[in-house]
Amino acid sequence: MHATVKMFALLILSLVSTAYAGVFFDSKCPEVKSIDNFILLKSGESEWFEVARYPNDKAKGSKCIRSIYSFKGDHAEVKTFFVRDGKEYQLEGTLKQTESGGKFISDLQYGSTKIVNNVYLLDSDYENYSITYSCKYDEEKKSRQDFVWVASRSLPMSSDIKAKVENFMKASSFLDYDKLIWHENDCSNLK
């Protein structure tokens, strides 16, 4: 009985730490296929709202996340706004498309903090939603952390579009729809 209680406690602790720390796997980053023939300029100047993401410590407590993209030929200037502890913050940077279509280099900065990621556009209809993915491999720990973001052009995301996101992610060999944290915030007052 004592061993069962310990095992149950360990299981609960594992689930809680995974839910709050992020999405980790004991493997290298997967081979990712992004959208074929994606053209950065096809999106035009636009505003996108983050409606869901995988949990991660860096975004913990952030809400009402929106990004404005201004396309400038071979790159986009990005302004990302978010609210944490009742205060709005802004990140600025660039999004550059690599030679492989739907793969991008995101370079955002807030003060002296710089965030650079390889980001893959996995799915989008260009008008309503997008699913992006990034992965960080830790050579020392021999594990990876996955990041997934679901964005929408409007709030709230319609049930039809949410169903498309669910179908795409559930058909994937490396994405886990059930790990998404869906934002329930009304952020319309921040526009």
Describe this protein's structure.
There is one protein chain. This protein has 191 residues and is α+β, with helices and mostly antiparallel strands. Helices cover 17% and strands 44% of the residues. The chain contains two helices and ten strands; from the N terminus they run αβββββββββαβ. It has helices at 2-21, 159-171; strands at 23-25, 46-53, 62-71, 75-84, 87-97, 103-110, 113-124, 129-138, 143-152, 181-182. It has an eight-stranded antiparallel barrel with strand order 2-3-4-5-6-7-8-9. A hairpin with an 8-residue loop joins strand 2 (46-53) and strand 3 (62-71). The longest helix has 20 residues, at 2-21. The protein is globular, with a radius of gyration of 18 Å.
Question: Topology of this structure?
Answer:
Layout: H1 2-21, E1 23-25, E2 46-53, E3 62-71, E4 75-84, E5 87-97, E6 103-110, E7 113-124, E8 129-138, E9 143-152, H2 159-171, E10 181-182
Antiparallel strand pairs: 1-9, 2-3, 2-9, 2-10, 3-4, 4-5, 5-6, 6-7, 7-8, 8-9
